[in-house]
Give the backbone structure.
Amino acid sequence: MQGERFEKGLEVRRSVLGPEYVDKSLQNADDFNMPLQELVTEYCWGEVWTREGLPRKTRSMLNLAMLTALNRPHELNLHIRGALRNGCTKEEIKEIFLQAAIYCGVPAGVESFKIAQEVFKEENL
């Protein structure tokens, strides 16, 4: 679990998702799922999220749309928080989910709005 790309990924992952969540994920990992934690940290966060081609805010916006399309509520909850950390506003998040509702289906949009409302309430927004 060492290496420069892993360390860079860990830094970005903590910055976007919050150190509490990331550290808990790593601490709770066992022999079975630690390889997945390493893979995600090194390649998702260390290889892709560190690229200069898109700012983090844009990457977060893309994630919100894709997670809506894929119906991944747990990940969507996590990435709404990350999008807020990366500078997305409630208004931008609303527009992302309206757009996604048209292209992914109204039920996906409804679920995304529901999750966002819960996050906004928890974050006092």
User: Anything to note?
Assistant: The chain has two domains: 1-51, 54-125.
